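Hey,

The postdoc asked me to send both predictions to you directly instead of through the lab channel. I've kept everything plain text so nothing gets mangled by the mail client. Protein one:
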Amino acid sequence: MKKLFIQASCFLLLLASISSCSKKIEDDYINPDNSTTGYVGKLFTYMLMNDRIRPTYWDYATFVTGVTGKYSQFIGVTTKAQMYVPSIGYNLDRWNSYYTSGIVNQYREIQKNFNTLASTQQAEQIIYLQLAKVIYYDQTAQIVDLWGDIPFSEAGSLNSTNSLSYAKFDDASAIYDTIIGGLKKINTFLASATLSNATKTDLSKQDILLNGDLTKWRRYVNSLRLRLLMRISNVNESVAKTEVTAMLNDPATYPLVDANTNNILLNMNPSVTSFSSEGLQAGITDGATSDGPIATEYMLNTVMVANSDPRTDVFWNPGVDGYKGLSSTLTTTEQENLIAKGKLATIDSGTFVMNRNVPGVLVTAAEVSFLKAEAYERWSLGTAQTAYEAGIRQSISFYYSLNQAAVFSGYTKASVATPATASIDAYIAGSGIAYSGTTAVKLQKIGTQKWLNFFILQAGQAWAEVRRTGYPSLTFINDPSFSSALQPPVRLLYPTTEKSYNAANYAKVAAKDTRDTKIFWDVN
């Protein structure tokens, strides 16, 4: 195969010399003799295909329904023994999808291959290294949000050096500092990056996330950095305030995801079963009688229905009794009877469960607007109400667009028309939603709307923000059958594999390895 490529290359160069266009050929096509240059790009593509970035059955069936969706109170759970104890095996799967079978090993492999290139090739391929680092940073922050201190600086030695060593656990706050600083440098790099025609063409194919659009990558980078700065803002307010102020006052230097057209979404091909959103179809509906797609009473009835939330129709399928969520105050038998009789609302089939066109969601304009609203309200940097109301409108528009772009297989459900502007205006002006009250009340409203916007597609971000801000204030019934886990944890326990195979390094963090040890940014 390589010989054929070489022959094809020579033939192209011969034609180019005849037509006196050799320089254009060099610019527009990657030389097959330099085969490693294409390999870095393919590794980058594979990195984006991680099962925690694209929507997959396994993620939704094991982790969203069992951990982040449950602890964010998006998914109703029947009262049962050890209902707040996550599966050890599923937590290990989440850990491994970052380390041994996913992000870290792919990033280290990209680094290793990049370092073998000649300097001229590195100049062409460095864009892949920088964009891969963005994904690496994003996923690393999510792992920190779940576990706290994690192996970071020394992780992935087998891929990077072909030698096995046991990685130390890095301090969680130091990891955040590295990521926040690194993202700022990447934004600077992307602002002045120039790509050859060949690299542009290759990047547009390999970058299945943003198709090589570096402006959108900068929006992603800066929005991710804004998220992380706000996440540390209660524990390191001076740094967060200074950096966020600089970003929000200089949008030309720090462009953000400011409109739904700029949302950072991994869109999969709905006609390809293995890579479409079949994960929602099977994952969310697994175990529907216990941890399935049932609405919670608080989210559906207290927050949404009571305020005539326009998203209700695209978030939920009404049950026999209409839009009713599961109450945690009922007995287990009463809860199971309601579920068995179909009386409770379930996650909407048209928008989510049967929709093969649901994307992987990394950042939305609504999230950015709510982050801006919080910063404006706390630090008087701008008009918080404008950002807050923009976030609500963007969220409503986003979810209706998902519903209206649905693709089904062997299923049919009519899409829902976008609510009239007057209806959305009335919702925003309603007594429970209107931007009024004390600063604490306003921050509570911002936090609640951000939580609603995340929903199951970003349940991990929702759980992190609920712990950081305390909004909304979620109430969980105690599990009297298991005294050591009466309530949901504030972090996950390290996998047993770390205790067994990385024992010396684990011993240094063992004292922190409790379900009640807060992540460093959680100071509520």
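Protein two:
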Amino acid sequence: MNEEYDIIVVGGGHAGCEAAAAAANLGSKTLLITMNMDTIAQMSCNPAMGGVAKGQIVREIDALGGYSGIISDKSAIQFKMLNRSKGPAMWSPRTQNDRMLFSKEWRLMLEQTEGLDFWQDMVVGLLVENGECVGVKTQIGVEFKAKSVILTNGTFLNGLIHIGEKQFGGGRAGARPSVGLTEQLVSLGFESGRMKTGTPPRVDGRSIDYTKLEEQPGDENPGTFSYKADHKLTKQRSCFIGYTNQNVHDVLQTGFEKSPMFAGRIRGLGPRYCPSIEDKIVRFSERERHQLFVEPEGWDTCEIYLNGFSTSLPEDVQIKAMQLIPGFEHAKMFRPGYAIEYDFFQPTQLNNTLETKVVSNLYFAGQINGTTGYEEAAGQGLMAGINAHLKNNNKEPFILKRDQAYIGVLIDDLVTKGTSEPYRMFTSRAEYRILLRQDNADIRLTEISYKLGLADECRLKAMEKKAKNIESIISNFSKTSLVPGEVNPYLEEQKSSPLKQKVKASTVVTRPNITVLGLKDNNEKLAEALINYSPIEIENAEILMKYEGYIKREKEVADKLMRLEDIKIYKDIDYSKLSSLSAEAVDKLTKIKPRTIGQASRISGISPSDVSVLMVFHGR
């Protein structure tokens, strides 16, 4: 038990699993400590991965050598590409997953990861010497020493579950809260706060009348998250859509006086974009109904997740209201919905590496940083694991920029702006989203991952082959001229102006509703040229041709703004001595300690004139 590790990861959720896998795969002797080995990577809320912006994060994790994409593919029961009707910057992959299989596959992959040990216990304290974290102490009194410690405690720090007027300690239903760590961290100088999240009741699918619901099947040709694409779905389970009504709302309102949220028993702030059902009927009182997603929890189980019905009302009110939903007249609950309050720490107390500023060699990742969502947590865990390993080995930190990855946007937002509510990633948060598409995460990040030591040579060569093939397709379209007589019937069919003379195929494909495959079917030369390319490569090439102007413009803007990222701010700078800075700027800059002028410019309250003062001070 006195064995010393390079890195200790506390918590076996999505952040902890990715952190432990990354650290061990890079060569660090790693220990993962979790309160329950049977619930590693448990999907505590909805049984799904990805979605809008989140799907991009999973693809980025996969490109960087993480496990989330592979596990999602192995445990998927449905695959959908969301937002197909919009531009490619908005396309987002999502899987419905077998919750039990997801957790099982994660554990099996971690157990097969060389250099990774496990310990089932609760961490109740950190070992801190001279401002450095050197290990942890567990509930049964065991001490483990390490060069670095990564905390990924999720919703467990002083977790408090609410169901109506009842409240009890717990990190999630059926699990104990983690106690002791918050108090120690506060005593060390950390600023903590409270947040809340909620979950809907789980329902016995055998008691639901699906004929009254709208079926939502998966994609006809399902894709995968992982670029390795080893686990493609050959069969899928459908989800369904249902709706509340005024009768449901009336019954829910009868429980408001016992609601922990409306009675003020919950102090933590919940996510605005994922409100509880009681929140919805108050904030959107003009609506007669709200959409519900009826999601299966796995291949074999009859348990159903009632997405959109998150609630902490008394359980008798929950079941009475639920049985007024068409299709749920005879519904039986496996377990009621509940709200959970937990401690978090303002992420402005972190460096971009996710190492804390207060204690060296201590990293935070996941919901402890005020985020919500499996994907956001996993992305942070991956980055914390990488950076802990790099620092231990005296190597340069790994920091993704905002134009490189959604993960870069996520971490920069957290450490620069902080958060007052559970932070969730949206495509709107990324100013360079046409560059950060889900289809090109491998091209953006695989080479970086290979140089770090996570992606293997096989992955690198596959990415290089894909990039070369995409360039070849574009080249063929740029060289091939389309004859009016051949292509005009197709153009007219798509309500596009007919050609009057020969035009390059790369120009025609930029038109709305015109596709690469459509042109291929009307030109023998293109048909022959595309024979040896995969559908994914053809689709990627089409995106690049259609949006060439937008992509070029966004790259130029990114390059211009990112020049500020290259201007490092002097260490130990005393902002109070820069008399031309505003008082707010002095306060914010002193607190957040930005690394670069670019990061300083994104801090709320920093004006263009403040940035100019910093530029002059740094000789620019």
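Summary for protein two, as requested: The chain has 21 helices and 22 strands.

Thanks,
C.
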